[in-house]
Every structure is written in C-alpha cells, then in structure tokens.
Amino acid sequence: MFVVTEADAAAIRAVFDQEGELSAAIELRRRFPGITDNAKARLCARTIAGWTPLPATPRSVTRLRPGKTSYAGPSAGCDVIAGMVDRADADMAAGRTVTVATPGDSQALHESAMVRLRARLAEDTEEL
Prior knowledge:
Elements: H1 6-19, H2 21-31, H3 38-50, H4 74-93, H5 103-127
Helix pairs in contact: 1-2, 1-3, 2-3
C-alpha cells in the first residue's frame, strides 16, 4: 500500500499521456522505489493514469432554514451506534446472518445494504 499525492498522480498521468505506459511505470518506480515488480508498476501506472483530478473543495453550505440542523451531536451518535450493535447482536442470536463466500455474495450484500440506506436517506430528507 502506498499513498499517491495529487502531484505524483499528475506527473504519472503526464508521462503516460506523452510517452506511454512503460514510461509511466518507470516514473512510478522512480517516485515509489518500494515497487519493484514491473508488471505491478504498469498496472498501478494504468490505474493512476485513469484517475481524474479531485474536484475543488466545495464551498460552505448556506442553510435555507437556519433553525433546523440535522447534526445530532456526539451523544446521539453513540446512542445510534449502540442501537445498531444491539440489533446486530439480536440478529446473530436469532440466526439471521449472511455468509459471504464469494465476491458475488459481497457485491449482492453491498447492493442490498445500499438500497436500504438510500431508502432511509430519502425518508430523512422528506422529514426536513
């Protein structure tokens, strides 16, 4: 694992665009000497070359209804997490568990969790 700064990524992208994948892999290995395998360096260079620069930091949000806030504070957050842990313990005790054995299982579990999360977010948004 290694951290790529925006400057490193921009340099690797520029070399990739101007001189190709092999040159980008060499540039990557020059900047990250811990990467010794050429095949992995080429893979990383292709991946980094496909990145787009991060968008500018968004401006602060001006609330339309200044009296309302959705931030619950740290104690409420702890209560929410404690409730989630209690529900998870109850589910495990009742045998309501999911076995993730393959990447497909993981993806299906992720997608179903995201559907539930989006539904809850929609409900929360309607309440505001």
